[in-house]
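Input:
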Amino acid sequence: MAENCSEQERRPIDYTSQMTMEDPLWWLSRIANKLRTVWLARTYPFVSFGKRTWTRYSLHVTRSGARYISIGEGVGFSRDVVLDVCAGPDTHSPVLILEDGCGLQRRVVISARNRIHIMRNAIFGPSVLMIDHGGDVEGRADSAVCGPQAGGGTIRIEEECWIGFGATIVCKHGDLVIGRHSVVGANSVVTRSIPPYSVVSGDPARIVKQYDFSKGKWVLGCIRPLATAERKLPVVAASLLAES
Amino acid sequence: MSDSRKEIREDVLTGFSRAANKLRSLWVAWTYSFASIGKDVSVHYTCDLQRSGAPYIKIGNRVMLGREVWLNIPNVSICDRAAIVIGDGCGIGRRSVISAKNQIHIEPNTILGPSVLVMDHNHAFEDVTVPIGQQAMTPGGRIRIEEGCWIGFGAAIICSRGELVIGRGSVVGANSVVIHSVPAHSVAAGNPARIVKEYNPLKKAWMSVTRPHFLREAEFSDTDKKE
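Output:
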């Protein structure tokens, strides 16, 4: 039973149709979610708020933070998602960008200070934490963790990535890029960039698998290292930025 | 029962949430068509259960489902038997996610800590031309957590193929990632999980494993062998 994968199964699952025959009590929360979505889209000063984006009533986002958040079309938020923006007063561009078709599972926490850019069709498992600034433990222990002095870097999650359950992505300085179609395993801790088409897991995250285009399949180990040393990281990330 | 009375005496407001939990438990037990549901099942009012998935869920006596527990059956249309079986006296900690495509069997008196993930399938990512979110689920395997286990906070138990068994009376440490079977009476911890302690029946004591070993080879090696 486990081995055969029927046609029916191959199709992506349509959760909304699955839910139509559900518990009548479920409609209460559905109405609350709808009202919350409409309320957010109409009254919050989002940079953009795409169509077909649905949020839950338990989404945590502040009105002052919404000015720095751009949400694309068809973005899905599960319950208890936290979008936390602590941008300085001189920030003008959006700090948190969610492109079309992203999916955030329950209890995802995104805390952006400089820039977190999540590109199209990236999906997040439950309980993921993503933070682009860290309390600088060395030296400036007294400075506010979420103040303009907190430093930090930028995070970019490229298209079609999948971030697994409970993963933590922290960028304290420089640019952290998770390359296209990469997979971050459950409970991993990512502090460095990941090349495109890779699977990483562990704490600290290491590359366990990569897609070999010449063979056309996924192979074990790291065949295309992005940065051999962490120090090289900003340079490589910059060149990637130039490509895109 | 004495605990709950104490709780109410401590703060009368807890009575409201207790009442909500009671109502939710009754509502779920009466109106959801579970494969079976035992007595004294406590379902928190924030639990996420699908009505359509209920015929494939078996819940034993005195099971406790904590706040925001999510019992998920991703694709009901391909289920043909009980996919989630929770034995008598199990406790599922708050925010835990149990997602079963084939079968997840939690045997009696096992406790899951908060934020645990138990999944017997996953997203397929192999096709690099299709976004991962739009690819189907992997065929997956089956998971059996035997009697009297304790799964620590935030642990992820993921079975991508075959059968994953966590042996009787074993402990899985906080935030570990378990992708292979754990023998009985042992402590597994880490990401990826390794056996760090074992029960020695001769000495009747838990002994540290001097050189913690991985449960088996890395997860991805056996796919390659198959290929």
